[in-house]
Structures are given as C-alpha cells and as structure tokens.
Amino acid sequence: MFRTANVSGLGMVVVDGNGRTVYLLTSAAQKNVPCDDASGCTKVWPDLPLPDGTSGATAGPGLQQSLLGTMKLSDGQTYPTYGGYLMYEFTGDTGPAQSHGQGITSFGGTWYAITPAGAPLTPAMTGATATTRSNGY
After folding, report:
1. How far apart are CA 95 and CA 92, in angstroms?
2. Percentage of the chain with pLDDT > 90?
3. Which of 28, 74, 93, 104 has the most CB atoms in a 10 Å sphere around its CB?
4. pTM above 0.90?
C-alpha cells in the first residue's frame, strides 16, 4: 500500500507502507526514465516490484487509486506506477520520512519525490532554490 506523508522539507509526498519516501526518475522533458539492474541503478534506487500473486497496488490515505497503475518490464516483473511513473526508494534514506534522494541527478535523469497528484516534486513546486546534486552514480 502507498499513501501520503509529510516529509520534512518537501511537504506531503507519496510514501510506501513503511513510510519511506518514494521517488521517480524523470528526464528534462518530464518523461518516465526506467531504472534497471543492468546499469546498477537498482542497487542505489531499489525498485518496488509487486509481490507475487498481486495484480496492483493499493492507494492509502491521500492518494488517488485512479493514478495507481502497473508496468511490466523486460525482467518479467510487474511494478507499480503512480501518475504513470515507476516508483523507487533511495538507499540513502535509512528510515521513514527522509528525503536524501530529492533532486539527485543520476542514471539519465533527476530523482524527485512524487506529489499526491502524481507529478514530480520539482524545486519550483517546493519554492527551493534549484540546485543539482550528483552523487556520482
């Protein structure tokens, strides 16, 4: 189950059932960029495959079920999407309501938390100064 939570510095964003911030990877054109095992991306940004026997994700408080979907990738796994974006966690977030992955540029795009409306939470939306961080991944 996915829901929203108030994450310090970001406001209300999508989190997983354990309260961990969920991110998307997007290009400059705001297109979904998949993160895969072959590039090493999922070692830093773990994907969130649906459990076997599950056909879809469930929207908890603050989310719209109509924005939750799925995408089957070349690895044969089915992954949840929100607003059409694949969802990931960041290994630098060690617990709930952390946002250390916000704004990192790596693996062909920029990582953003996801708004309850299903969009990337960009610096313009938070009023933050636009800075680009790269962790060298």
Report:
1. 9
2. 64
3. 104
4. no
